[in-house]
Structure formats: structure tokens, C-alpha cells
Amino acid sequence: MQTLTALPGPSAFETRGKWERALLRKVSGVPLIARTLVTATRNGASSLLVLLPPGYTEAELSRHLEAFRSKMAPLEVVPLEKPFDPNCAADWEAIRGRLEPFFLWLPWNCVSDKRRLSRLTQASQRTSRGARFDWPRGNGQERAEERAAPAPAVDEMPLVLEKASIYQRARAEKSGGPVLENHIVQDKLEPIPLRSAPGIVVRTAEDVSRAEKDLVRWSGKDWDGVYSQFNRRLCRPVVRWLSKTPVTPNQVTLSGLLFVLLSGYAFAQGYHAAYALGGLLYFLSVQFDEIDGMLARVTFRDSPFGCWLEHFADSASYVVLYIGITIGLYRESGPFWLAVGGVLMTSMLLSILVVGYQRTLVAEADKPEQYLIRLYNNLEKESHSRVWRWAREAQFVMKKAVFAHHVLWFSVLGIIKVHYLISTLGAVLIWTLALYYNRLFRAQKKQAAMLLPSTGRALPANQMEGDS
User: What pTM was estimated for this model as a whole?
Assistant: First the structure.
């Protein structure tokens, strides 16, 4: 879906310097206008239409967006003779030929995120009409910071608009009535209920602070459970601080490995106090794992390499942790635990290899971050199978956010041996179940390869044999 963003004119500010600072004001380390356009792209924008006021050239805009162009959809810039007013019928008439049948109106200074914007676009596709957000305003249900902020104007919030409908309204308002305002109030846009505002309108430094808190609050994943949500709450202040520094998500990932090494060393000492310290250090290392992903999403610095680095760090952390625990239990209780450790280490290495291979089956090479959500979706599709249903439930326990809590509490309570035996069984199950999953994913990949990209029809059998 096309995204329309109109930039304000310098006359809206006291000086041109203040106007440029407003456009380029950094929110979590990203210039405001760049954040708006990249967010639209991550929402699935097919193209970006930016309306420029007089006095601001396309070359200047391109210079300011240069560092983010690779993360943006195709960009079309339209210079105007005066700043675009969404409530003026003549201004809509000036861009009639530029608009697609449906488009997302995204204000230049509204900081939102792709998950909330996607609800708008999905609603419009489902109902074939425009959509707007509906959230409690003025009834006491807003958060304290929302009540303190000025209420946004109707054109300062995201909307999905139907071209034909907006121009019908424009014709009706040629006498001077507010086009967009009346369109929202009087026409039947699909309302999307939210418990809080769908974005923060940035006007002041206080708004920037509220927007950064809002971005970090929404920087989790759709499938986060209660453990992940708890961990992310702990990490929010750190993520907000790091987003304003040159520290990269990959550096955070590598820093977490240091805590894993310290944790493994503590476990290797072989007595209760050391186990408790090792559990705490490992819990802290997992918070680094949460921070790097949140920081990457908030600052738009996520990448395929970062995803693979995180996968490597996760695998290495398990190996280091259990080498330390194995040495500690051997020192405390004898060689039996070396034998158990051999089974555990073999199963862990097999799990790393099989899951790594499965990732190549499930997700494209440049989108490894899609692995987990596609895995969960496939498990849901196979819910009629008892094995798949059981595996979907077991997946929760194997998630690292949950695992870190278990390591900590089993260590503190002095029952690390119980945890170790359960982990050995879990490691065996991971690689055996992953092999079972691979059967489905190989079949899906083969089926996808048999489809013509342009038509979706199956290739003839002789052509498939020739290609192989």
C-alpha cells in the first residue's frame, strides 16, 4: 500500500533552522523524517510519496535520508508551490494523479510502529474501505503521559484512505470546508480499537521522550510470552539509553557472551554459592540477548548478519554454560556427571546443526529473523497431530527467555542436578523433533520451487527434471 507523507513549510516555525531541526530531530537515534518513512516501509509500503513544501529541495531530502535509503521503499518526491493542507480541496486536486486507489496517510511527525500500522492496512484490505484508529481520549483510561500531552489533530494520526472517497469529499468541500476532518468525522472509516494512542505526535523535547518510551514498549515480538515480557520490562531503560549512543546491537550480543563465560566459570567451581552466582550471571547474559533485539528494532539496525550472530551466540552460550555445569558437578559428585555431560554435549551439537539447517529451510537467506514465526505458524497448522501439538507446547519451555529463569532458580535452590538431567532430556528431544519438523519444511520448499513465480502454476514434470 502506498504511503503519503506531507512535510510542513518553514513558515510553521520561527526560523528555517528550527524547521530543519524539527524534521531531523532524533528519536531513539534516528532522524524523525527517516523514522517515519522507514516505519512505513516496514509496514509493507509499496511506495512512498513525499510532498515537499517550497524552499526544501529533493536533493536536501535525499541527503538527510541517505543513511536509510536501503531500508526504504521506492520514494517519489513531489515539490509543491505551497505546503500541503489535507483539509484543502485544491491541495488534494494537485496530487490526484499521484495517488493509488488506497493509501496510508502517515503524518511526518507521528512516531508509531509497524505492528499498529499493519492493523490499519489489514482492516482496509478486509473491508475495502478506509480505516482509522479508535482509542480512549478524555475518559480517564489513557496512561498518565497521554493525559498530559495535547490532543492530536485529526490529520496528525495515521489513516488509511480510499482515493475515490477522499475526492468525493473534496468535491463536497470546495466551498472551503475541512476535507480530511469532515471525511473522518462524517464518513464510515473502519474503526480499529486500541487501548492507547497509536503513536506520539512529536512537537517538543518532552514528546521525544514519550515517543522513545513508546517505541521501546512496542519493540517486542508478537509471540512474546510472559517471561519475555518480564525480561523486556527490565531492559527498557537500558535500551532507551543505548539507542542514543553509537553502541550497536552486535556489540551488545558479543558483550552478553562475556557474562556467559563468567557464568560457566562460576558453575565450574562446584559448590552451591558458585552455582547461585553462575545462575545470576547467566540470567544477566540473557538480558543482553533481549536488549540486542530490542535495540536493533528501535534503531533500524537489524540485519541478516545480526540474526545469524545472535544464533551463534545463543548456541555458544548453551555450550559454555553446560561445560561449566558439567565440570562443577564432576568436582562435586564424581564421574557419573561426565557421562551425562557426554550425552548432553552430543545432543546439543546435533541440535545446533539440525536447527541451523532447519532455519535455511524455513526462512530466506536474507530474512533469517522469520524463522521462529514461521515455525510457530506451521506447528499451529499441524495442530491435529498429537506429536505436533505436544511439540508446540514443549517449545515454550525451550525458549531462552524461560530457560534463563529456570537456570537461576534451580541454581539458587540448590537443585542444579535436577535441572541438568531435565536439560539432557530436552537436548535429545530438540534435535529429534527438529528432524521431524524438517520433513514438513522440505516438502514446502520443494512445492514452492515447483511454482512459476509470475503465475503460481506448477511447472511441467519434464521441465522440473531438466532443471534438477
Answer: 0.80
What is the number of other CB atoms lying within 10 angstroms of the CB of residue 186? 10
**Tens-place pLDDT, residues 292-316:** 999 999 999 988 888 888 888 888 8
Is the distance from CB of 348 to CB of 398 less than 8 angstroms?
Answer: no
C-alpha gyration radius of the chain: 26
Residue 444 grid coordinates: 514446502
Q: Which three cell numbers stand for residue 314?
A: 545463543
What's the CA gap between 161 and 55, in Å, rounded? 28
For residue range 164-202, list pLDDT tens digits in order. Answer: 888 888 888 776 778 888 888 777 788 888 887 888 999
DSSP state, residue 195: S
Instruction: Look at residues 59, 340, 43 and name the one whose alpha carbon lies nearest to residue 199.
Output: 43
In one-letter notation, the amino acid at residue 270 is G
Rounded distance between C-alpha atoms, residue 314 and residue 318, angstroms: 7
50 CB-side CA count, 13 A: 25
Say which residue the cell 526544501 belongs to.
56
Q: How many CB atoms lie within 10 A of CB 344?
A: 25
Give, in order, the Cα–Cα distances in Å from 275 to each of 16, 242, 401, 417: 61, 31, 19, 11
Angle at 53 between CA 52 and CA 59, to 5 degrees: 50
Output the nine-digit C-alpha cell for 46. Answer: 509499496
Residue 268 CB neighbours (<10 A)? 18
C-alpha cell of 87? 483539509
